[in-house]
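Need a sequence for this fold. Nothing fancy.
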């Protein structure tokens, strides 16, 4: 089975089921010709539907036969080496054809889902669902989604609507159940009737479904605003980027449908973060997308966004050369994990059944052994009655024999006890002597240690006395220095007072001399008076001068 046929098998099954009339699992070849012609036209094939007339002799085919015919006659011409973008384009066209056939079976006119919301959910369901065969009737097939996969869609829708999934206990059964859901049941659990009173709720649910559709079906790994450096004008301009495994597209705004540019990704691309040469934190966190000699320089608003885009780009480059997209690969890995868990549970159930069977067999054996033991106990009681009488007679003789043997043993035991006591006394004496020698040696060692400790203590006390003596001498010397300092302070204070007094006397003398010089009637003072005055001034004493009358 080719990759394309495997990816669109679920949508083809829905179209096949819509063409059934009685639910028997068979569809007439005339109806299948129309469906086959439409699918083949999308693949640029013509006339392949005519081979249905010669395929099997029955006028009707079940789904298994029809799927085999499609794989051999239609999809075998499609190369398995198709690029991921072309494969996704074919899937979209085939799903649209199948939806046109089967959409009448679902209530697409429901006011809860408007526009293309039901079709988008249909494609999401076909991506995540599995094809199951009826174990009783080989002609009956069904496509169901595992409850855990449906739970993922429920969580994403609730998160997109700003609702808390943790408060939704009504979806807890999806975690515990293994019964798949068909598309009608899948639509029913997505009708959040408790929240339809919110303003513009229908538009919000359709927008949320569109976001999930882009993530799962269009395989959008990441989208958001980035800066891109232009070629003509080397400045950064902000665009809205959409990242898919095979391409990176950018728009002027997230609401625009016209693409400004597309970067085709392949395994030759590398993502490298740019480091600022100046060492300063820049407004735009730059990184480059390199392929050979072509370099695209991009930038994010913060460091965290840059790391997220670098990781997403590396993931897209990894899946760019694959035959399956990132989301389909993720779904397949979850399916494989569920299969492993199912096999593990089946093995555990098988081991449990074997264990229970062994327990039943053991219980039967125990019952048989219990019956045999009861019969043996009955026979043993009979033998015990006969043996009891013989035992009584033998017991009397044994009592006599025991008495004699006891007397003999008592005598022998007494001699043995005497020898044992003597041996014990000798051993106790030897042990006491050894312990005494050991204690003496320990005492000698303790005396030596005590003598050493005493000498150390005397040395320590001597050093302590010397330190105390030095401390007292230093303290006494400090007190002497303090007294000398106080004495010098007093002398300095007296000297300052004398200087101040001399200054005051000098001023008085000068004033009096000026008065004498200015009075013409005064007599000239004798020389001895002048010498006396100068001597008083020099001695810093108050001068008593005679003022002439």
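Here you go.
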């Amino acid at each position: 089975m080719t990759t394309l046929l495997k990816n669109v098998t679920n949508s083809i099954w829905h179209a096949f089921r819509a063409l059934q009339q009685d639910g028997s699992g068979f569809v007439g070849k005339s109806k299948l010709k129309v469906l086959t012609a439409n699918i083949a036209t999308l693949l640029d094939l013509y006339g392949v539907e005519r081979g249905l007339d010669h395929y099997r002799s029955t006028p009707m085919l079940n789904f298994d036969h029809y799927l085999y015919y499609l794989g051999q006659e239609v999809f075998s011409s499609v190369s398995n080496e198709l690029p991921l973008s072309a494969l996704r384009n074919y899937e979209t066209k085939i799903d649209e054809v199948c939806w046109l056939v089967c959409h009448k079976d679902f209530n697409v006119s429901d006011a809860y889902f408007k526009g293309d919301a039901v079709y988008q959910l249909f494609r999401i369901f076909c991506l995540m669902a599995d094809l199951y065969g009826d174990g009783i009737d080989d002609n009956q097939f069904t496509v169901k989604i595992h409850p855990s996969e449906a739970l993922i869609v429920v969580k994403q829708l609730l998160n997109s609507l700003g609702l808390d999934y943790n408060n939704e206990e009504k979806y807890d059964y999806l975690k515990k159940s293994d019964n798949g859901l068909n598309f009608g049941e899948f639509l029913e659990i997505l009708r959040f009737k408790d929240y339809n009173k919110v303003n513009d709720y229908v538009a919000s649910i359709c927008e949320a479904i569109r976001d999930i559709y882009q993530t799962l079906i269009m395989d959008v790994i990441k989208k958001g605003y980035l800066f891109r450096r232009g070629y003509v004008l080397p400045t950064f301009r902000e665009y809205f980027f959409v990242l898919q495994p095979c391409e990176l597209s950018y728009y002027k705004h997230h609401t625009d449908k016209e693409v400004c540019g597309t970067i085709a990704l392949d395994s030759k691309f590398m993502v490298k973060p740019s480091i600022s040469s100046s060492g300063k934190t820049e407004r735009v966190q730059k990184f480059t997308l390199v392929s050979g000699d072509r370099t695209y320089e991009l930038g994010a608003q913060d460091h965290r966004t840059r790391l997220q885009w670098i990781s997403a780009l590396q993931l897209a480059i990894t899946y760019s050369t694959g035959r399956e997209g990132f989301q389909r690969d993720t779904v397949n890995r979850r399916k494989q994990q569920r299969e492993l868990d199912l096999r593990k549970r089946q093995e555990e159930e098988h081991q449990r059944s074997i264990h229970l069977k062994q327990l039943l067999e053991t219980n039967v054996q125990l019952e048989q052994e219990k019956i045999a033991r009861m019969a043996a106990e009955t026979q043993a009681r009979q033998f015990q009655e006969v043996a009891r009488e013989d035992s009584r007679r033998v017991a009397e003789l044994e009592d006599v024999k025991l008495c004699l043997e006891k007397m003999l043993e008592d005598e022998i035991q007494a001699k043995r006890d005497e020898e044992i006591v003597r041996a014990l006394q000798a051993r106790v004496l030897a042990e006491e002597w050894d312990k005494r020698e050991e204690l003496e040696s320990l005492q000698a060692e303790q005396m030596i240690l005590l003598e050493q400790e005493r000498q150390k203590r005397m040395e320590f006390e001597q050093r302590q006395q010397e330190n105390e003596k030095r401390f007292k001498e230093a303290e006494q010397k400090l007190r002497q220095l303090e007294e000398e300092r106080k004495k010098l302070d007093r002398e300095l204070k007296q000297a300052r007072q004398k200087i101040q007094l001399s200054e005051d006397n000098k001023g008085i003398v000068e004033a009096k001399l000026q008065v004498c010089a200015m009075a013409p009637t005064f007599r000239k003072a004798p020389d001895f008076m002048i010498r006396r005055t100068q001597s008083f001034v020099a001695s810093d004493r108050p001068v008593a001068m005679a003022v002439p009358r």
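For context: Residues 326-518 form the longest helix (193 residues).
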